[in-house]
Amino acid sequence: MPELAQLAKSKKQVVWEFRQAEIITAARKVFAEKGYISATVDEIAARASLAKGTIYLYFESKEHIYNAVMTNDLETLRRLTLEKIAAADTALEKISAYINARFAYCEERRDFFRIMYIEPSGSPVLSKAKAREWLREPVRELTVAIEDAIARNQMRPVPAEILAWTVADLTTGALQRRLATTPATTAREDIDFLLHFIHAALRPPAS
Amino acid sequence: MPELAQLAKSKKQVVWEFRQAEIITAARKVFAEKGYISATVDEIAARASLAKGTIYLYFESKEHIYNAVMTNDLETLRRLTLEKIAAADTALEKISAYINARFAYCEERRDFFRIMYIEPSGSPVLSKAKAREWLREPVRELTVAIEDAIARNQMRPVPAEILAWTVADLTTGALQRRLATTPATTAREDIDFLLHFIHAALRPPAS
DNA sequence: TGCGCGATTGACCGTATAGTCATTATTTTG
DNA sequence: CAAAATAATGACTATACGGTCAATCGCGCA
Fold first, then answer.
1. Please, which pLDDT band fits residue B131 given cuts at 50, 70 and 90?
2. Are B160 and B91 in contact (CB under 8 A)?
3. Contact status of B55 with chain A (Cβ, < 8 Å)
4. How far apart are CA B160 and CA B95, in angstroms?
5. If you ran DSSP here, which 8-state letter would residue A61 be given?
6. Average pLDDT taken over every residue of chain B
7. A5-9, A83-87, A193-197: least confident range
8. Cβ contact, residue pair A201, B206, below 8 Å
9. Nearest nt (C1') from A56 Cα
10. Band (A103; pLDDT cuts 50, 70, 90)
């Protein structure tokens, strides 16, 4: 009965992936609180209500756990950002889409953003560099849209790539501030301020 | 002979402070490369061409060394920034002063900026939070200047404090990018872009 | 119920590193 | 120049943590 064998195997697979997800969820919290190096596998195990040995049945090493956590969220964030950018029409709308996508995912995944913004880039795990890598594609999309808008005279001429990175900086800065302190403003207010600021900077000169 | 005693004592003091400075310089490099936790006292000692035991004659603990390194540079950076801001007249000039001061000190103290932008904020040392603390005063100065400019109708009305923090974010973002990658642009170009961008965003509407 | 086997456990090992201190080197002093 | 005082050293200790594995558990099945 290949079907049954298949079924049995897939059930086992499901259980296995569920355990992995449990561990990833626990690890994300611990990494967010302590950073990669200070986080201990013992604490991750305790959070997941498992013995340390069990952790090593599902992941080869602490570094593999960390990579699983980060890859998971970085990929989702990248995908969501690109989707929202693609769905927008004009360059300004794409910029808005970028900012909104990042704020939305930050709201949903506070722990992940804590790791991104707080984690040392020193050995053995290069999180800052990795995060920048995953930013490249969305920023590239913004750059292209900006170049296009300038070519069509819809925006005053600016260095497109620097502007795109600047949009990313503004977003990162606002989110970091919201994570590091108790924000005095709502996310909506922060987003609106950024968008007004960017719009004002890019509107054609009074001439 | 109290003078001679005084002199002798002060000479000893000088030697002592010189040793401390040597250790701080070595430690800054190691912390910048490895981050607080991965940096070892042995490596700091080796860089300073001292035995580990000697380090502990001048500092109580690894954390005390770290605090000395950070306090040193954070205070200098704060002072330089405040001086340049105070020397400028208008709000826009003060913003320019802020950005130029940060870029200049980053140029001069690459290692320190590496620590600031790369260090985990996790226990036991809260560098991100501490760095934000030292930013508060310069940002406060910018906020006041901006509020003033708005009151005098020299600038279109914007939320002053958010704008001030945004200027800080733009600066931090640009510097982080310069530290993390091999910059394709000169510091001058980056500064000019930021200033043009900010000026454009703040000029009165075409109306 | 009792058996077999995979899943789980946590005591244990090796290693790395912050911090100590008896010993050694250097400088000061009489 | 010798003795005393001071500075520097690095082997050593205690501890913490990543990773292992023999012992144990408990689920599914007959």
1. confident
2. no
3. no
4. 12
5. S
6. 90
7. A5-9
8. no
9. D19
10. very high
What average pLDDT does range A59-69 have in this prediction? 96
Nucleotide nearest A51 (Cα, C1'): C9
Classified as helix, coil or strand, B136 is helix
Q: Are B107 and A22 in contact (CB under 8 A)?
A: no
How many Cβ pairs closer than 8 A exist between chain A and B?
125
CA of B22 to C1' of C28 (A): 24
B106 touches chain A (CB under 8 A): no
User: Could you give the CA distance from residue A2 to residue B145 in angstroms, rounded to a whole number?
Assistant: 76
Closest CA to A169 of B141, B198, B74: B198
Burial group, residue A53, by CB count within 10 angstroms (0-12, 13-18, 19+): exposed
Please give the residue that has the higher pLDDT: either B98 or A16: B98
Higher pLDDT, residue B31 or A207: B31
Asked whether the whole model's pTM tops 0.70, one would answer: yes
In the prediction, which pLDDT does B124 show? 57
Predicted local distance difference test score (pLDDT) of residue A118 = 72
Ordered DSSP codes for A68-107: HHHHHHHHHHHHHHHHHHHH--SHHHHHHHHHHHHHHHHH
Question: Helices in chain B by DSSP H: which ranges?
Answer: 2-38, 41-47, 52-58, 62-87, 91-108, 110-118, 127-151, 160-180, 187-202
Chain-chain contact of B166 with A173 (C-beta, under 8 angstroms): yes
Output the pLDDT for position A6. Answer: 46
Backbone angles phi, psi at A99, to 5 degrees: -60, -45
Predicted confidence (pLDDT) per residue in B40-93, tens digit? 999 999 999 999 999 999 999 999 999 999 999 999 999 999 999 999 999 999
For A11-47, the DSSP string reads: HHHHHHHHHHHHHHHHHHHHHHHHHHHH--HHHHHHH
Chain D: bases < 7 Å from a protein Cβ: 7-11, 16-22
Backbone dihedral angles phi then psi of residue B144, each to the nearest 5 degrees: -60, -45
Q: What share of chain B is helix, strand, coil (3-state, %, to 5)?
A: 80, 0, 20
Residue whose CA is minimally distant from D8 C1': B54
What amino acid is encoded at A118 in this protein?
I
Task: Compute the average pLDDT of residues B123-143.
Answer: 84
pLDDT value, residue A131: 81
The alpha carbon of residue B28 is apart from the nearest alpha carbon of chain A, in Å, by: 14
Phi, psi of A181 (to 5 degrees): -125, 170
Chain A: nearest CA to B1, how far in angstroms? 54
Q: Is B123 on the interface with A (CB under 8 A)?
A: yes
